[in-house]
Design goal:
mainly alpha; elongated; 12 helices; 3 strands; about 375 residues; Rhopdopsin 7-helix transmembrane proteins
């Protein structure tokens, strides 16, 4: 760290932080490796993957469908969250020996990064839920889904998703009060150059922190339950179809119909795996929020000790970053169609594959109505 940030001497202390507590927020070797090695690696591969997925949609027409439009919005949200949170980590590490010393020293400097991070986080949770709802309707209610689906409906749903996320983020916007915290460090040893005054971002009102933690925890739990119910139903339907496929299709079923059905099921299973990884990665962050809510309500340390909270804080930071980076790689790892699309986009075979797709589309168009009727079985 080249420079240590410290608040001006005339800033009034609002909180006195005991030295033994402050020492727990000093960067350890593991913390330093996380910021200087882990975050750059995750950021690099995350941006490459998410931007690469957007390029795939731009270059390959046959990849432009409703599900992928939703996933494109998810890639945008993940990229913005990755870049903004990484900037916070780098800047704080460079200017402070404490990972809680938020060095954007104005209310605007506190509010803007938090606003971007929370907007992208809320949007990612509800975009994953929107994708699950779209697959749920397509597999469990195929006839109704076929009649109501369309580009205008998708645009309205995306606007609604971002609108809800923006409203929820409004509770994070008041999270822009830089609270000055004083620390009485010992005068000897490594503490001599440590800042005696630091700042952390707090809510502008007494209830802002409680509202943020409550909304953050509630929306995660609600989204988790909704996704669990929908994918539970999807798995049940897919298992029934797997058992009855041979009898349903018989010898008269065309190969094109089988391909369409197989692609449909593969996408559903891919999104299921993606959703499982999504909620597993965000679970530590949710536990942190619930603990903070308990602390704000009861005025205690919550159900986590200080040491447990510090460890879980770094785990949640890592898993949140991984979650925002992993989606494009999960698409390719779990679905052959997406894997081929990535290869086609960044190799010379794009034109040939597009021509194959056009010929295949013209030969299988007549089977779509049959597939819709069949999926109701």
């Amino acid at each position: 760290m080249n420079e240590t940030f410290e608040w001006s001497s005339d800033a009034q202390c609002e909180t006195i932080l005991p030295v033994e507590v402050a020492e727990g927020y000093l960067y350890t070797y593991a913390n330093r490796m996380f910021v200087t090695v882990g975050i750059p690696i995750v950021l690099f591969f995350g941006l490459i993957g998410n931007i690469g997925f957007l390029i795939v949609l731009l270059r390959l027409k046959h990849m432009r469908n409703i599900t992928n439009y939703y996933l494109a919005n998810l890639s945008v949200a993940d990229s913005c969250l990755l870049a903004t949170s990484a900037l916070q980590y780098f800047w704080t590490y460079e200017h402070s020996p404490l990972d809680v010393n938020f060095v954007f020293s104005t209310s605007f400097g506190c509010a803007l990064p938090n606003f971007i991070v929370y907007l992208c986080y809320f949007a990612s949770v509800w975009l994953v839920t929107l994708v699950a709802a779209e697959r749920y309707m397509a597999i469990c209610y195929p006839l109704r889904h076929h009649t109501i689906t369309g580009s205008s409906r998708s645009v309205r749903l995306l606007a609604l998703t971002w609108g809800i996320s923006l409203i929820m983020t409004g509770f994070a916007a008041p999270y822009g009060n830089p609270e000055v915290v004083c620390i009485n460090w010992p005068n000897d040893g490594p503490y001599s150059k440590f800042p005696s005054k630091i700042a952390v971002c707090r809510g502008l009102c007494a209830w802002c922190d409680k509202a943020l933690y409550a909304i953050d925890s509630a929306q995660f739990i609600i989204a988790f339950l909704i996704n669990t119910c929908m994918y539970g139903r999807i798995i049940t339907i897919l298992n029934k179809r797997t058992i009855s496929d041979n009898g349903a299709y018989g010898s008269a079923a065309t190969s094109s119909l089988r391909v369409l059905a197989r692609n449909r099921d593969q996408v559903a299973r891919m999104l299921l795996i993606n959703t499982i990884v999504f909620f597993i990665c965000l679970m530590p962050y949710c536990i942190m929020n619930v603990n903070s809510l308990v602390r704000e309500i009861l005025g205690s340390h919550g159900f986590l000790s200080l040491h447990q909270k510090q460890i879980l804080s770094w785990i949640s930071k890592l898993t949140t970053q991984i979650n925002s980076s992993a989606n494009p790689y999960l698409y390719s790892a779990t679905n052959k169609r997406y894997r081929k699309a990535f290869l086609q986009t960044f190799t010379c075979s794009r034109q040939q594959e597009e021509e194959k797709y056009r010929r295949r589309s013209s030969s299988t168009a007549y089977t779509k109505a049959s597939l819709i009727i069949d999926t109701k079985l």
